[in-house]
Amino acid sequence: MTSAADTPIDALSPLEAAAEIARLLEAIRAADRLYYQDDAPTLSDADYDRLRLRLVALEARFPELVRPDSPTGKVGAGASEKFEKVRHVVPMLSLDNAFADDDVRDFVARVHKFLATHGQTVAFTAEPKIDGLSLSIRYVNGRLVSAATRGDGAEGENVTANVRTIAEVPQVLPDDVPEVLEVRGEVYMSHADFAALNVKAEAFGGKVFANPRNAAAGSLRQLDAAITAARPLKFFAYAWGEISPDWAVETQYERVRAFGRWGFPVNPRMVRCASAEELLEVYRGLEADRARLGYDIDGVVYKVDRIDLQTRLGFVSRSPRWAIAHKFPAEKARTVLEGIDIQVGRTGAHTPVARLTPVTVGGVVVTNATLHNADEIARLDARIGDTVVVQRAGDVIPQIVEVVRDEGHDGRAAFDFPHLCLCDLKT
Ligand code: IVH
Fold first, then answer.
1. What is the pLDDT of residues 204-261, one digit of tens each?
2. Which residues of the chain have pLDDT under 70?
3. Is residue 426 among the annotated active site residues?
4. In the prediction, which pLDDT does 398 show?
5. How close is the Cα of 186 to the center of ligand 1, in Å?
């Protein structure tokens, strides 16, 4: 049976489309809540992007069904109730995504067309897309006065006391900085610090985080700044909010370099490019080096370098026309399925968990992966001893996405899913 979720959009009646939009809104809101407020996502980035793309496509096909509060017109999930709110003078917006090389070529072509360049070169920057959480830090006369998370883009959470404890964030800047300066960037945690934090948490019964991004978010969004102080948070500056108008540094590249001179950590892999092909070369280089960087990146951000051109290009809905995030595909690796354990949840649901020969996927050692349910094991025809492909997509639980049909597969026994276990009989 196919559900509405699989039906091509053109085949949906308006009534079916309305029901499908309601379902997607609910799923996206729930995912946003878990991601932004609870720092405990359950969907992979790829699955989340799929929901959003389907909603965008449905809204384009049925504009009369667009809800005023649709998340496609909105960034993030709003600030949490537990923090004081800060209104961003310059909104903190999000980026459109590119997945394929041609999306990047289209982006560059759109920029040229909009600017009517008639063959003249436009410079772009290419920067690693750091997988952390964005932060805006405000300085007045060179002194840190406040810091806020993105929140819904218009209003964020006041995390000033917490940010003051991050050693990498300067409290005082040199004399030559603009009077008002908001530096924006990403708070993140390195792989090594994340692993050490989780080892400590396991030993002392603290919260074990699913990935470095959640560890960074959970560490920053603490009501007690002393907890943040004990967490190894890092920061990369890559953007800005309000700045006094007299600052005559005219490009993205030079502005970020100035942040570096003032004491902010800036990413050493930022480069300037002159064409889509050059941007794609940077993407391939970063993809190849990804596991060795020591921190998570989930793509590359391309930006028009000249700020006057950025201003001309402006924004569409929640994202700038002058920038795009080129996402990496989910990270995958091959390993051996050593066993399948059945976990029995509080509701009695039986969830199969794959036990794997440990394998590094994007810098994280994976030993377990979800197999979802009996149907999924049957669909994959996963048998103990098989070589499998595991995928980690910045999400909580790695997944098995494929069984490699090697010579031994047919000789292995199909997995017999135990629907009844001894614990069911103990009453
Ligand atoms: S620029 C107006 N540059 O990605 C756009 N964002 O998906 C300002 N991110 O909200 C953002 N690395 O949290 C920019 N080098 C980078 C980035 C970056 C990571 C994050 C940031 C942003 C999200 C958009």
1. 878 888 789 989 999 999 989 999 999 999 999 999 999 999 899 999 999 999 999 9
2. 1-6, 63-64, 68-69, 73-81, 345-347, 362-363, 393-396, 419-427
3. no
4. 83
5. 8
Closest atom of ligand 1 to CA, residue 239: 1
The residues near 129 (Cβ < 8 Å, ≥ 6 apart) are 297, 298, 299, 300, 301, 325, 326, 327
What confidence score (pLDDT) does residue 151 get?
A: 94
Task: Quote the tokens at residue 376.
Answer: 């999924």
Tell the residue nearest (CA) to atom 1 of ligand 1: 239
Q: What is the pTM of this model?
A: 0.72
CA of 187 to the centre of ligand 1 (A): 11
Q: CB under 6 Å to ligand 1: residues?
A: 93-95, 127, 129-130, 134, 186, 238-239, 301, 320, 323, 325
Which residue from 266, 282, 240, 271 is spatially nearest to 93, judged by alpha carbons?
240
How many angstroms separate the alpha carbon of residue 237 from the centre of ligand 1?
A: 10
